[in-house]
Amino acid sequence: MKAFDEDMIVAIEGVSYSGKSTLIDSLCAHGGELMFTTVANGVHGFDDSVRQVIHEYGQTLSPEEEIMLFAARLANKAKRVSEYGINQPILLLDRFDVSLIVLGHHLRGLPLQEVSRIAQMAVGNVLPDAYIFLDVETDDFRRRFEKDHATHPIREGLAHHDRMKKGFDACFRKLNGRKIQINTSWSTTEVCIEQSLNFIMQL
């Protein structure tokens, strides 16, 4: 078990609308023995700038261009994590290397070996101590998606969700190390928090 006065990084991975941000916010606001924090957007809005490029030009980007932009965001996040001080609260990451692999290989169809190499280059020696994978059932995804995208074709969102879900499931099975998968459709937010805390306490 890792002492809680040492650096600890926990990556929260999973499909869109699975509750990653909700879990991170809840853990950071949670009082008790464990203290949590997360990383903010990049210096000078780097993360937001890359996100804006992807949003504006996403329909015209090739898979290779898209994955390199996401890799730039990942590298920027890894750099900020590497600068994180010692003896600090447990650091929670909203998406990390697994998300890049799922996007590049399972969603966009790029070769797994190449995407994995890009992810490794982006994160360098910054590796999470554990992973929490969040999942959500298709009906709940549909409801949450339609709430945010009332005019967007749900079929496109469902196809995207299905491929990403299969990708995260595959990565969870293959990932060595400390990990847990939580289905947020089957559990309340309070139960998800409790499961996450119990998992982290065992690290």
From TrEMBL:
Q: Which Gene3D superfamilies match?
A: P-loop containing nucleotide triphosphate hydrolases (3.40.50.300)
TM segments? none
Q: Where is the Thymidylate kinase-like domain?
A: 12-191
Signal sequence interval, chain numbering? none
What top-level branch of life does the organism fall under? Bacteria
Task: Write down the InterPro entries for this protein, in alphabetical order.
Answer: P-loop_NTPase, Thymidylate_kin-like_dom
Descriptive protein name = Thymidylate kinase-like domain-containing protein
Natural source organism: Mucilaginibacter psychrotolerans
Tell me the organism's taxonomic lineage. Bacteria, Pseudomonadati, Bacteroidota, Sphingobacteriia, Sphingobacteriales
